[in-house]
Write a structure and sequence with these properties.
The structure is a homodimer. Chain A contains eleven helices and 17 strands. In chain A, strands 2, 5, 8, 9, 13, 14 and 15 form a seven-stranded mixed beta sheet that branches. In chain A, strands 1-4-10 form a three-stranded antiparallel beta sheet. In chain A, strands 3-11-12 form a three-stranded mixed beta sheet, with no helix packed on it. In chain A, a hairpin with a 4-residue loop joins strand 6 and strand 7. Chain A is globular. Chain B binds a DNA duplex through strand 3 and helix 9.
Chain lengths: 564, 564
DNA sequence: TGGTTCGCACCTAGGTGTTAACCT
DNA sequence: AGGTTAACACCTAGGTGCGAACCA
């Protein structure tokens, strides 16, 4: 019934223009080849440390394989054996250090001044992209980023109110062009004229430090656009330019000047963080096929374009599916397979027919209805934990709202017209790896496990620049970038203040079924009937069942960024 | 390919047990019959004053017809000619009076003490259900209410912080049983033992009075369950009991005791509102077929069950479809129609095949990609409106966050253990009609049109009990209920504090494309490229194009409830 | 020719009533 | 026999890359 059918192969029309290098990744090639085709099949569904976060159905399956999915770190000298254990479930020990100070001190009372830190979640995935050369599609209507920025914040005053915002600044003043022949980005001239400044203010803003630190702060809903007249509040960028996303944490009293249509103010109370691996080049259509592949492999919404296991191409998948019927099918062609062009084989429920007909409804129902529904519970006020410990299900309660004590700071200043602050100052950042990129819910469990030692804790209790990873012997530890030589951020105080609405409504719907603890979702870990509450670091109680269900500890990146 | 096919008719298995009265609505029957079949066809897509709020595609179409869609008010003595103009587009004058005080005073500076008022949105739809006998399905997993509670709040101090919450209390201590023979609910004994108390705290809580008053406060995400062990934060109810939803507005300093698992506290600073037309009976499966019909007709998610125009039942629709081929088909039976059991007729594009095959993918693409995307824009701080008036698109900006001045009130008290407050006191309420129930986005536009007279303003500026409707001659005006004789609300201080998460993440996704101004969505009117901003009543500027696009003024209900 | 746009198939995510079991 | 449950078809809503068309 469908009027148009996709071509069977997901290569773009430009495929003829690729270099072999671009297609196979050359020296950056992952070592996947070593494996049997059967093993690689599942990679296509989104594997390794980074979980899709949206298809609860395949989570369990993948966790069983991740130990060998991450064993390859293209190009970099990073040790492979570090990632493997981290990727796997049940090794939650790596989780703990993410909240070193807050968790240690049994917070609840205000903490003394400590360094605000921001860890990038999903750093591993970001780096995978970064090694290839991250591209982000921008459209007139606005396009989400993939991976999305997700960070974990620590070192805030639990009782102060903060805004968290994100902006994206030019890395240089160049325009780029992708040369298919060499599979490289080349400078193609100077940058286009600046675009109207836009800031994505996290929809949970303002919130208490406790709230921010309790969850993974996700920027899933942020959208990029090339429409300079955009009135949806999306971040406006030029195509074929290089950009650097930044995260800002602004104390409420300093947020007077904060606006979605003005550059983020600078000064005390505004801390800015950036992560080098999140640099990307904007495009209106993907240039590097490797990027396309990785996006398709990892973004659940692009599942339809998977060959059912990327590197293990479609044919191999079919071989597997039909092995029972035709044991020696190794050399078969598409024509050999009945219905290949129109539908999947009878036994291949997980085999997406690339040219499949619409006549095959999804009655296979891959989604397990009992998968975690990740709800969020609201409390009217911050509560004494004792009120909720009586729970017969060993559940904790999430104090969603800042609570009475959380906003004794009222910003009394008027939101006066913000004088254009001028160029942003550069930002430093240190970054450790071993992270989940897209926000594996299970992986981002912000819980400190009582009684379980935190092997990396020692490395994280120092200041931001001392971050390191105990279990990653050969890993470089952290990267320290000098002042980011980012292109001047000068926008006209400008006429197009045409601020406009931005849809934040369906916050978290994307990751609704998995990324617990993201501030986007205001969710809490909850698997099936189990109830697991985050308690803002004030307690260390939690349902130990969570461990068995939601391991995959490594997805939290030990990235610590230092602000200016 | 589908393994199971729905029966051709959407009548339940209990259909054999209905009385004719139940099927045709007896004296409550709407006068639709008078119309030609062609006119009534589209009713099935969700018409009258209440708009689906989720299918932007048919909005325009419907507005062209609504003038005659709402002309019937079953049973009540309500004048029909009142509703007609109100339902139609362009008559925005009815919108204005909804925000009498805030809009009048050019708020922005604090208002003197005034009566807090709450208007039920979608009162018309609620009353339609109420007249039949509203039923709400409850499931173990939790079921949304339809219609959802949506209210408009006024009379708050714009600069104070408030929580808005909802709970649902028993109307009496009886258990009910539906008697198909008489199509009536009969008492079947005493109520079951009380269920654990649950309160749905609106996810936007706490927020400033300005924020609450600016938007329609929607309880879309609230879910009902019959699972007493629920850990999702859903409201727990008994099946076959009668309940009354209530809305509470709690000033932040009084919200210490507010908890999702404890009864709403009483006392100063807590104002409770209830609307008689929102009483419902809980069921696990619909009892009254008229309820089923109305639900299917109005709930966009049930569109698949529409016969393409409910009251203009399936057969009539087919007659129309096949009229061209068989002009005298009035007496035909299902068997007369080729393919009746499996697919719709050739010419009825809007006729959903009741038993249709899955082999027909949605390539018709009903959704217009250019339809309003209803985005929400965040502002880091409340801003001086002057900053945004320069917009070349005559757009205004929504000040999303309370802003600096919005929380000078910090509740310093600890969230101490809340002593069980005991039975709720009854609540009074006055209610005017003429409302949209489900929250037609366009209809809930909280804008005061400068220069446009507000015919009903005079009736709404008084205290809560003086509400009336100027244009509804014969309507009773308002209802004043004495202290609601609601069943005692005594729950054990109880053991199952098993509070638990509640998913609030995808707030507004349901109404994402239409109900602007709902606090659930934090959205702003925005049609296509147009940008319309709500400004919290601080300004009256807005893009006049909104009028032409988003009329349908009547959907805002002039309901004013009085709290205890 | 390189870059952009737009319709589309194909996904995820989740809200409907129906239906057939199932329970009491 | 009435009430409850879970799977399911069928929706809404919207996020993907593809590919043809378009543009400069």
């Amino acid at each position: 019934m469908a009027e148009k059918r996709r071509a069977t192969c997901s290569l773009s029309v430009k495929a003829h223009a690729f270099s072999v290098e671009a297609l196979i990744g050359a020296h950056k090639r992952r070592k996947m080849e070593e494996r049997g085709e059967g093993q690689r099949e599942r990679e296509g569904e989104g594997v390794e440390e980074e979980r899709d976060a949206s298809s609860p159905d395949d989570s369990p399956r993948q966790r069983h394989e991740c130990s060998r999915e991450t064993d390859t770190e293209p190009e970099t000298a990073r040790a492979r054996d570090d990632d493997s254990p981290a990727d796997c479930d049940c090794d939650v020990s790596l989780e703990s250090p993410r909240r070193p100070l807050a968790a240690q001190k049994q917070a609840g009372t205000s903490l003394p001044v400590e360094e605000t830190r921001v860890e990038l979640q999903g750093s591993d995935l970001w780096k995978r992209f970064h090694e290839i050369g991250t591209e982000m599609i921008i459209t007139k209507a606005g396009r989400r980023m993939f991976p999305a920025m997700r960070v974990k914040v620590s070192g805030l005053d639990p009782h102060l109110q903060y805004y968290v915002a994100m902006d994206i600044i030019p890395v240089d003043n160049k325009r780029y062009r992708y040369v298919y022949h060499s599979s490289k980005w080349m400078v193609a001239g100077n940058a286009d004229s600046p675009v109207p400044p836009r800031v994505y203010i996290h929809p949970d803003s303002p919130a208490s430090g406790e709230t921010w630190m309790r969850q993974v702060v996700s920027f899933d809903k942020l959208k990029l656009t090339n429409n300079e007249l955009d009135d949806q509040g999306h971040i406006i960028l030029h195509s074929m330019h290089k950009y650097q996303p930044r995260v800002h944490i602004i104390c409420k009293e300093c947020a007077d000047e904060l606006s979605p249509v003005k550059p983020v103010p600078v000064g005390e109370g505004v801390k800015t963080f950036s992560f080098p691996e999140t640099v990307f080049t904007t495009v209106t259509a993907y240039q590097n096929q490797q990027i396309t592949r990785l996006k398709i492999d990892r973004n659940p919404f692009a599942k339809g374009f998977r060959d059912s296991g990327r590197n293990r191409m479609g044919l191999e998948a079919l071989v597997e599916s039909y092995a029972f019927w035709r044991p020696s099918l190794r050399t078969l062609t598409f024509e050999d397979i009945p219905g290949m062009a129109k539908q999947g084989g009878p036994g291949s429920h997980s085999l997406l027919s690339t040219g499949g007909s619409g006549a095959s409804p999804a009655h296979t129902h891959l989604l397990s209805p009992s998968a975690c529904s990740s709800p969020a519970f609201h409390l009217g006020a911050s509560m004494s934990a004792s009120e909720y410990t009586a729970c017969s299900r060993s559940a904790l309660t999430l104090s969603r709202y800042g609570g009475p004590l959380a906003d004794t700071y009222g910003c009394l200043g008027s939101p006066g017209a913000d004088p254009y602050p001028g160029p942003r100052s550069g930002s430093y950042s240190t970054a450790n790896s071993e992270a989940d990129g897209f926000g594996n819910p299970h992986a981002t469990l912000p819980l400190q496990i009582p009684g379980m030692p935190s092997p990396q804790l020692q490395y994280l209790t120092g200041n931001a620049f001392s971050a390191n990873q105990s279990q990653q012997g050969t890993y470089s530890g952290f990267r320290l970038h000098g002042p980011y030589g980012l292109y001047g951020y000068n926008f006209p105080t400008s006429p197009r203040l045409a601020t406009s609405p931005e849809k934040v409504s369906s916050q978290g719907s994307f990751l609704g079924s998995s990324p617990s603890g993201t501030t986007t979702d205001r969710q809490i870990m909850s698997h099936g009937e189990g109830l697991h509450m985050l308690n803002g670091g004030q307690q260390n109680l939690f349902d130990s069942r969570t461990l068995g269900i939601s391991g995959l500890a490594n997805s939290s990146s030990q990235v610590s960024a230092h602000m200016v």
